[in-house]
Write a structure and sequence with these properties.
Length: about 325
């Protein structure tokens, strides 16, 4: 069977060779491997890896300041609430058609999503927008210069090269605020549920922009779960453009999870089948982070046509070069 590569959120059989058009590119190769053999072995065994001081203080400051600038300039027209607990309920149905479309369009935009707890029972915003936004997503890595620079840096390319990616292709990015008092829970999940290639290839790349602790809602992970679970469920966009899951959530023991507490500037990478989560942030401290997801764009890897994330015409996914 002929393989097809990533282009514009769709499967594309032909490639032209021109930058930005999903053409054939010479795979980037790092001058030396970023990860040691021991680090690679730990990642393969555990499903995640913590890299302290990956980002400099200047890197962190630049991304924090840019995130603040984006929020200040945001004038909400369509209010979209993001909740991993109620993803289908908050996006689907006639009453939520605008919210759903805003979410789907975010694949090609820099879009803003509010915390569920930011509104009162009448739907009025209870706090300033700066402390009410859940996240900014999902094309920061392509559209915003500051986030594009970090996401496509030589150091990032070297990291992915160390893990064997031939044509690493960022497909989604988010600035996550985890606001004080109202920062929502992120339920246990695998990233391959939301971003699927055949064969699976997604990797999550998560940068702490503030210290992340148990108190303010750090990541929790199930060590080794990527080896035993496979991709257990998928979030799809069906023929009616409704967001659906193909299976019910798979129950498992939260006692298997352990906190991943890190300092600002630390990078955490995790396998697409690695189960991870975070609890609500009930503290007085925020927990800002920048995260993006990369898939293999080389021949032999197919972007699933029923993924929710679909780029608009003329705006293809762009491999790192």
């Amino acid at each position: 069977m002929r393989t097809r590569a990533l282009c514009g959120g769709r499967l594309a059989a032909g490639r032209t060779g021109r930058p930005g058009t999903c053409g054939r590119r010479r795979p980037w190769r790092a001058p030396s491997a970023l990860l040691s053999d021991g680090q690679k072995a730990a990642y393969e065994a555990d499903g995640f890896l913590v890299l302290e001081d990956f980002a400099t203080a200047a890197d962190v400051r630049e991304l924090r300041e840019r995130g603040d600038e984006l929020v200040r300039s945001f004038d909400p027209e369509t209010i979209s609430i993001f909740s991993t607990k109620k993803q289908e309920k908050t996006m689907n149905g006639k009453a939520n058609v605008d919210s759903r479309q805003y979410f789907l369009d975010s694949a090609s935009n820099v879009s803003f999503f509010f915390e569920e707890g930011a509104f009162d029972v009448d739907g009025n915003l209870q706090r300033q927008k700066e402390v009410s936004i859940n996240k900014i997503g999902h094309a920061l890595h392509d559209l915003d210069p500051a986030f594009r620079k970090f996401s496509r840096s030589d150091k990032m390319k070297a990291l992915l090269d160390s893990l064997g990616y031939r044509e690493p292709t960022p497909v989604q990015s988010m600035y996550i605020f985890k606001q004080p008092k109202i920062g929502g829970e992120v339920v246990p999940h695998q990233d391959s549920t939301f971003l699927y290639t055949d064969p699976p290839s997604v990797i999550g790349i998560w940068l702490a922009l503030e210290d992340a602790t148990v108190e303010n809602g750090c990541l929790w992970g199930w060590r080794g779960s990527h080896k035993t679970k496979g991709v257990e469920r998928r979030m799809l966009l069906d023929e009616d453009e409704e967001i659906v899951f193909d299976k019910d959530p798979v129950p498992h023991d939260l006692g298997e999870y352990e906190p991943i507490e890190v300092k600002a500037g630390t990078l955490v990478i995790f396998h697409g089948q690695f189960y991870h989560m975070s609890y609500e942030n009930k503290s007085s401290k925020s927990r800002h982070a920048y995260t993006f997801h990369v898939v293999e764009g080389a021949d032999g890897f197919d972007w699933s046509p029923d993924n929710w994330l679909r780029r608009r015409e003329g705006f293809p996914f762009e491999a790192m070069t």
